[in-house]
Design goal:
Layout lengths: L4 E6 L6 H9 L4 E3 L3 H5 L36 H7 L8 H10 L8 E4 L17 E7 L2 H16 L4 H22 L5 E5 H6 L1 H11 L11 H4 L32 H5 L4 H11 L13
Parallel strand pairs: 1-3, 1-4, 2-3, 4-5
The structure holds zinc ion (ZN).
Amino acid sequence: MAEPGLLLIRGLGHSGSTILDLALGAHPQVIGLGEAVRVLDRPRPGEERKGPQQLRGALRFERHCTCGALAGDCHVWGPVLAWLPAHDDRPLAEKFNRLIQLLSSASPRWLVESFQADEQLLEAQALGRPLRVIQLTRDVRSWVHSESRRGVERHGRSRVVGWRSLLRWWRVNRRLEQRLAGSGFPVFRLGYEELALAPELALRRLCGWLDLDFDAAMLQPGMHSTSHIVSGNRMRFESGQSDAIRYDAAWMASSALSLRMAPLLSPVARLNRRLVYSNGLLGDTWPCD
Ligand SMILES: [Zn+2]
């Protein structure tokens, strides 16, 4: 059996990577691993007690893996989480390969990793397996809107947060586009809007690119995913949230100036169209810009 390839979902955080990871994982030949790098990466000093790093300790017997088992009892994550504390100085590639070895009996074609901000695996040629990248991008207006909502929850109302988010969307996505273009890896540009508003078309297109037959189970990721995700968007723990792929269109009712201006800033509008709508799945009625 050929070694499984590695499929990385990369882009700006909060762009829908967890639902895509789960949807891909619902395909019988694909296994999703969530934000595996976040779990495997050595905790920075002072962060041992934060976030997914805690899965090395007691938290692994409190949190569930998406396979249904407690993370510490999952046949994939369990042994790795127990092994990590004494081996945190090992290179990420070695840790990742250890995780992957535990999956070989399932003989998947593709393994998905979805920590969007990570670039270490892009450099891990040492993994010695086929590597492809999905650059997942959410429409700038939708991303800025939800980022502003989060900003307001965290820091109180601020007019600056919208503009700051807009700048960040532009900076991070443009840099990643350039980075991927220079990497030589096959890249599939997928818009979150295309995925959420035309899920079947988008997933069919994606399957074609991965040399897989489309499987309708992918449209109901929460019910069929065979993934082992212990770290990702908390949505996966909320029942009903991942039964189907849905779109949150709240931004369309927003009158925030940063949001309304985005399509008028032509470099932003061009990047948005290129990264989010390149597959042309939404027809003429959706306001691509
Ligand atoms: Zn599991």
